[in-house]
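TICKET: design request
STATUS: open
ATTACHED STRUCTURE:
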């Protein structure tokens, strides 16, 4: 059993802070941090490799956490108890349940179409905000998207805000990252219909003939869909809105698209 870490100045606590704050450090180490029991369990149950779990008994309030710790130890995960002061130094949440884990990163390299189910695919072009990406991944998982592609993304996929906003579900949906050209070539090889949305279109989403084998392409929060993808879209539609709002945020837009796709294709 490891000795409890008391001081917030302990080198291992300082390393956790670096992993939390520095994309470069995450790249160098090949790991990232996830905080919270539910988020950690979602990642662990998706089969991702856990390096270590830091826990603070004083902050743990859920009765089944102790059983989980014992189970993780039996699974060979290294457990490290820390003091409340040390834990709060490493924590990035205002309210923590006393669990913080170091998880091994995985590859986002695009795999051949035959290795990826592609009934329903989501493409995010130049997404900029980690929190938005995490929320979108949660929505994609909830509605059963087969894969999510990041096209020329500038977001660090393993940013703590991505993990937190996804509720730990970043490991549940296959995610791939590449250039616009690489993603488009993959969609073509998979023979997917590329669908885009615009408020300027006359065809309603609910009147579109959605079919299995569709890729929904969404642009950045700031600029929308760029010229490259606009020229590649094979079907356009608009999401009908009855209020005065002229647009929806990316996550709300995606929820509408995926929900209607499942209804139209009887995907239950």
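STATUS: resolved
RESOLUTION: sequence designed for all positions
ATTACHED SEQUENCE:
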């Amino acid at each position: 059993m490891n000795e409890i870490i008391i001081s917030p100045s302990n080198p291992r606590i300082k390393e956790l802070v670096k992993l939390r704050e520095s994309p470069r450090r995450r790249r160098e180490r090949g790991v990232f941090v996830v905080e919270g029991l539910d988020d950690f369990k979602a990642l662990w149950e998706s089969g991702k490799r856990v390096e270590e779990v830091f826990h603070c008994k004083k902050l743990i309030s859920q009765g089944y956490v102790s059983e989980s710790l014992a189970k993780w130890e039996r699974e060979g995960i290294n457990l490290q108890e820390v003091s409340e002061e040390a834990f709060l130094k490493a924590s990035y949440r205002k309210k923590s349940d006393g669990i913080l884990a170091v998880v091994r990163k995985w590859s986002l390299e695009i795999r051949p179409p035959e290795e990826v189910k592609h009934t329903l695919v989501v493409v995010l072009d130049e997404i900029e905000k980690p929190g938005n990406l995490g929320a979108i991944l949660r929505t994609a998982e909830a509605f059963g998207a087969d894969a999510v592609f990041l096209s020329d993304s500038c977001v660090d996929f393993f940013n703590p805000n991505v993990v937190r906003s996804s509720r730990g579900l970043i490991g549940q949906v296959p995610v791939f990252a590449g250039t616009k050209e690489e993603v488009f070539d993959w969609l073509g090889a998979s023979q997917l219909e590329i669908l885009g949305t615009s408020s300027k279109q006359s065809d309603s989403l609910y009147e579109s003939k959605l079919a299995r084998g569709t890729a929904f392409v969404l642009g950045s929060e700031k600029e929308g869909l760029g010229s490259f993808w606009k020229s590649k879209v094979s079907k356009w539609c608009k999401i009908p809105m009855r209020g005065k709002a002229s647009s929806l945020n990316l996550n709300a837009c995606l929820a509408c698209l995926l929900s209607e796709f499942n209804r139209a294709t009887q995907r239950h």
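CLOSING REMARK: The radius of gyration is 21 Å. The longest strand covers residues 50-55.
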